[in-house]
Amino acid sequence: MKPKFKQSVSILLTTLLSVSLAACQSPNSAGTAEESAANLNDPAWKKAMTTPYEPYPETVVYTVGQTATSYTSLAGTVYEKDTATDNVWTRYFKKKLNVQNEVAFEANDGTDYVQKVSMAIAGGTIPDIMVVPDQATLQQLYENDLIEDLTDAYNNCASDRIKEIYDSYGGRVLESAKFDGKIMALPTTEISHGPGVLWLRKDWMDKLGLSEPKTMEDVEHILTQFIEKDPGGNGAGKTVGLVVDNENVAGISGGPYELNNIFALYGAYPKQWIKDDSGKAVYGSVQPEMKPALAKVAELYKRGLIDRQFAVRTSDDRKALLTSGKSGSFLDNWWGSWTVADTLKLNPDANWVSYVAPQSEDGSVTMFTGNPSSSYLVVRKGFKHPEAAVKMASLQFDYQRYLEKDPAVLKEFEDYSSNNIGGSPLAMNIDYYDAFYRNVGIFEEALKTGDSSELVSNLDQNAFRSYKKYLDSVKNGEKPDPIAWAGYTSSILTANLVKNSKVKEINPVFFGTTPSMALKWPTLTKMELEMYLKIITGEQTPDAFDSFVSSWAKTGGDTITQEVNEALASK
């Protein structure tokens, strides 16, 4: 789901909340609080309510809003009768914690799910447990006293590893769920996307005798050689330059085909709310550093080093340029190998290699980080066992991943994974900030020796088997599976590259919405995109940026900037 959609949904949710939250008040809060207090006097209940993995003495039933899972791919297996309330995850929760879900609503991940959340809130039918899509919704629920304080539940029932995971974000994640010092939700974590990564056809570079790129000048030289020397055999003038997104030229953390690395060379961070030298939040797209960055990109376009047709390409067009061999260059992230995996089907000799480039004079790459928490797990005010949500999160994102050793249980989860089946009632994820390269050194040693015992995560064990299968195929001279190649290239080769690179981080300070955004942000966003495209393609000179900044401020930008700073001050 694209970030701009998330923002529009957030605005819609804010509007709905403002007129409907009163309907959600629970009349049973006092009674359930008394029941909880009574349970704490029972040793068995008290232990279950204050420790991560202790099962409840009696089954705790909870209603939940969850993402839909299609079980059709399980037809013909022992799991073919599995449902949203009886599957590998719900059975695991029942066995380990003695909790059972009842589905309050179910929807496809993304647009459908967010709409169901908004409908539940508007209709006053908040389930006991659900994930809400952003902090603005969380804040509204808190201010209207509709969700439980999870502070004690977190302190008592979050496992040590879960707390360590949240700590890996330097406080940015858990703090976003706190209001008046109270933890009001469990945040979903968004692992680091890492810096932008330049992907190049290494077989083309070898054919032309080109060295790996570091500086912007190196990158320009390689692109020039690709276009002029035609190492892919496309024909004179038919090799396409750097493939670029036309909706997000730059400004989305982790976005494919974006030029974030080039903008960062000029200290420009488009679409990000960052702090200026005075500590005030400002919008990166209207800062003076943007002008020379845009001028540079316009120069690259004029020279043909950027795809001359990028402004009219579709997503499928962009991918096809790369997989068909029409272009040998694009900027993405560490997972960019998945974008071009199909190249191996069309040309098994193609060799895509990643580089952390272009770099600054000191050899570093500067990146802006994404929203560290995209959504939040909340518990309805009055639910008798709010700690159940924390216990389930600890079980799913710690115990099952790291501590579960029962081969039969692990096989069930692996069977689900191999069929791309989810099934968990918790529509979230909790993982370390540096998850994508955290264990790369251990992986490399395990693949070298064949001993994977140091890989403590069950997910890592599954990945190890896949990577080993890929390496074995290469060793035996067999044609590698494109998916296996993509996994190994992204999670081992590129992850290791990023881990050993000099990366500087800029942390944006605001990811939410403000009152004026509902009416003014769509217009401002359209103005911004038009400015990018017109300057880059030469329809306007870089001086047009100054006019854009002035118009942006008068069309609502100044008002929104003030609201962003007020929101930050109030938090």
TrEMBL record:
Keywords linked to the UniProt accession: Cell membrane, Lipoprotein, Membrane, Palmitate, Signal
Signal peptide coordinates: 1-22
Gene3D superfamilies in alphabetical order: Periplasmic binding protein-like II
Protein name, entry field: Extracellular solute-binding protein
Organism, as annotated: Paenibacillus faecis
Organism classification: Bacteria, Bacillati, Bacillota, Bacilli, Bacillales
